[in-house]
């Protein structure tokens, strides 16, 4: 009873912040799904984290392992879970009961931005237009439990089958819309075509039965079904449509049981659901961190007595070690905002008589420009005593109805000054080029950018003065651009498009590699190209090896041929062989994997160590084959692995010469 009362008390405490955060989010231009907030205790939060944010999942040992790891992380100072939000319509967010009000407000503002991202990013729409993820995963959980409870089905076999499928959970085609359609019609067409061919041969029943028995017909159908015009990235779909279960008792491949096909497709469906989160991790977390900071810090959603605690909260999130998606994402969103705002100001300045891209840095008074683009003082110091100052501002910056209500005392403008402003007014109030940390950014514009902006500029003498030009600046430019990017990009395109040399230098990014010479990790480069290659590598295919099916009838023996898209990083061969063992159970016949490895001559390695350099490896094609009993590895000529080697992107981030 006491716990229930505490939960109710917590719910009452956050009720107003939930309502006000939604209003502020919409004022700032966010358009989130509705969000249902739930109050949970510490153990329930850990359970949700273990279940990837959901209250119910299918039975499996890995959930317990994740729960145990999360509990230990909390107990031994490895990090605190502030929130969980899941992509759904409406979205669901879980607040931990023991959090302070400052933490709860931070979580709520963070969640509103996440929900906006879910609702508007195209990669989330690729799974389903009408989504009820919680219901979907609950149905899967119920179905798996029923399968396990069936007395005709061995529970251990079900668990093993799930393990087999999970080892391939990221081997889908995350760049294609989800297709929940078996290729049954194609297979029936292939079977009918083969039967028609035999019919045309006009054979006697005796000859037909003797020469073309059922086993032969089945083998031919398998070979036809396995034909591929191009590599198939959705390995799970291919195995669903063409795979067989290996039966150890019969010692051969047999048709999958209905429950096996069901489980394979259910787990594949879940992989597609979670793919959007994995492919937009940096964008999504950075987006949420940016708007949380805007609401909590710059719009004072955190009260004066909560701000220090909130600052500590955000510092912990942004300061976590390693490749931090919150920090990288937030920095990139701020860079997009700054560069677009700079573009807007510069393009106006280049239309002033006497200013060209050639003399820009010599004739522009940047201190004067900074003064001219400062937000109107009436926007910066909004209070109940200064409301009359807003009446002289342009109508598009002030919410006239809200201003009238504030003047009548219906709106507490001292606590919520944003309520009397529009999107345009808030954009001017928070114009990024006027912030202290961005001083000098306008002046630092590269000459190449100036030339590009001026190249197609026809009205280059539109303004008589800098004052006239700056009065025409669109303060919403940066935010408008951010919303455009939010709608269309994933992490790979986000990094490719916006991680520039200027960004890398300003934020002190660098690459590091394992040194065979010293046996430890070294900083290897601060060059922009190297940093970008390294980051792109981290986010291509969730940072996992990219695999595809290349042949379902390899060597004309019904064997499966997989190809690893080699991008300069070798497979972990131990993990690869363990994975092939799992895939064998899903294919029923021998499984092959072609890849490329780096081989280093020991003599060359010793010479390199003496000279404090890295040995130069030789790339060699390899084929790994597993027949159900043993592995075989053999060399492949380069002509047979050219199609799996990266060509137009070189991922090598090591410099030619390593410093001692």
UniProtKB/TrEMBL annotation:
<feature type="domain" description="SpoVR protein-like N-terminal">
    <location>
        <begin position="467"/>
        <end position="543"/>
    </location>
</feature>
<dbReference type="InterPro" id="IPR057008">
    <property type="entry name" value="SpoVR-like_C"/>
</dbReference>
<dbReference type="Pfam" id="PF24755">
    <property type="entry name" value="SpoVR_C"/>
</dbReference>
<feature type="domain" description="SpoVR-like C-terminal">
    <location>
        <begin position="545"/>
        <end position="596"/>
    </location>
</feature>
<feature type="domain" description="SpoVR protein-like N-terminal">
    <location>
        <begin position="11"/>
        <end position="342"/>
    </location>
</feature>
<protein>
    <submittedName>
        <fullName>SpoVR family protein</fullName>
    </submittedName>
</protein>
<dbReference type="Pfam" id="PF04293">
    <property type="entry name" value="SpoVR"/>
</dbReference>
<dbReference type="InterPro" id="IPR007390">
    <property type="entry name" value="Spore_V_R"/>
</dbReference>
<dbReference type="InterPro" id="IPR056174">
    <property type="entry name" value="SpoVR_N"/>
</dbReference>
């Amino acid at each position: 009873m006491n716990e229930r009362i505490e939960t109710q008390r917590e719910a009452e405490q956050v009720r107003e912040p939930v309502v006000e955060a939604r209003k502020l989010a919409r004022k700032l231009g966010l358009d989130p799904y509705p969000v249902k907030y739930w109050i949970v205790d510490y153990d329930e939060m850990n359970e949700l984290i273990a279940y990837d944010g959901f209250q119910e999942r299918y039975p499996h040992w890995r959930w317990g392992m994740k729960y145990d790891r999360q509990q230990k992380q909390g107990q031994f100072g490895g990090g605190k879970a502030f929130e969980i939000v899941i992509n759904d319509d409406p979205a669901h967010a879980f607040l931990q009961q023991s959090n302070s009000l400052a933490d709860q407000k931070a979580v709520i503002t963070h969640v509103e931005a996440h929900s906006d991202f879910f609702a508007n990013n195209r990669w989330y729409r690729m799974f389903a237009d009408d989504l009820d993820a919680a219901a979907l995963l609950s149905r899967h959980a119920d179905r798996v439990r029923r399968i396990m409870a069936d007395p005709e089905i061995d529970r251990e076999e079900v668990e093993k089958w799930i393990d087999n499928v999970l080892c391939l959970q990221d081997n889908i085609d995350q760049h294609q819309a989800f297709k929940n359609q078996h290729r049954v019609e194609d297979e029936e067409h292939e079977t009918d075509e083969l039967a028609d061919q035999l019919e045309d041969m006009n054979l006697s029943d005796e000859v037909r039965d003797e020469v073309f028995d059922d086993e032969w017909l089945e083998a031919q159908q398998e070979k036809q079904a396995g034909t591929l015009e191009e590599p198939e990235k959705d390995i799970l779909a291919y195995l669903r449509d063409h795979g067989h279960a290996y039966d150890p008792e019969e010692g051969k491949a047999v048709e999958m049981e209905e429950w096996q096909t069901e489980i394979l497709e259910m787990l594949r469906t879940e992989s597609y659901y979670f793919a959007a989160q994995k492919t937009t991790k940096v964008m999504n977390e950075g987006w949420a961190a940016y708007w949380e900071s805007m609401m909590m810090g710059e719009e004072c959603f955190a009260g004066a007595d909560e701000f220090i605690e909130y600052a500590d909260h955000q510092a912990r999130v942004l300061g976590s070690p390693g490749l931090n998606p919150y920090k990288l994402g937030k920095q990139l969103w701020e860079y997009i905002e700054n560069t677009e705002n700079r573009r807007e100001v510069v393009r106006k300045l280049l239309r002033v008589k006497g200013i060209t891209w050639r003399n820009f840095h010599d004739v522009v008074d940047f201190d004067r420009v900074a003064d001219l683009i400062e937000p109107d003082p009436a926007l910066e110091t909004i209070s109940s005593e200064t409301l009359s100052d807003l009446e002289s501002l342009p109508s598009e910056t002030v919410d006239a109805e809200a201003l009238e209500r504030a003047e009548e005392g219906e709106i507490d403008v001292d606590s919520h000054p944003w309520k009397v402003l529009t999107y345009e007014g808030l954009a001017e109030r928070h114009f990024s080029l006027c912030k202290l940390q961005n001083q000098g950014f306008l002046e630092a514009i590269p000459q190449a950018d100036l030339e590009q902006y001026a190249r197609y500029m026809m009205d280059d003498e539109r303004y008589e003065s800098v004052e006239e030009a700056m009065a025409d600046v669109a303060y919403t430019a940066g935010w408008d651009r951010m919303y455009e990017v939010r709608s269309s990009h994933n992490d790979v395109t986000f990094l490719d498009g916006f991680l520039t040399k200027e960004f890398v230098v300003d934020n002190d990014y660098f690459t590091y590699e394992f040194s065979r010479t010293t046996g430890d990790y070294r900083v290897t480069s601060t060059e922009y190209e190297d940093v970008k290659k390294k980051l792109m590598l981290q986010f291509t295919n969730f940072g996992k090896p990219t695999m595809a099916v290349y042949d379902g009838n390899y060597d004309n023996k019904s064997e499966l041929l997989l190809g690893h898209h080699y991008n300069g990083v070798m497979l972990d061969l131990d993990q690869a062989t363990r994975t092939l063992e799992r895939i064998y159970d899903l294919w029923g016949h021998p499984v092959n994997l072609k890849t490329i490895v780096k081989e280093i001559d020991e003599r060359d390695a010793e010479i390199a160590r003496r000279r404090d350099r890295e040995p130069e490896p030789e790339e060699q094609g390899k084929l790994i084959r597993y027949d159900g009993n043993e592995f075989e590895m053999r060399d492949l000529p380069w002509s047979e692995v050219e199609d799996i080697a990266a060509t137009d992107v070189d991922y090598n981030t090591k410099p030619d010469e390593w410093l001692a």
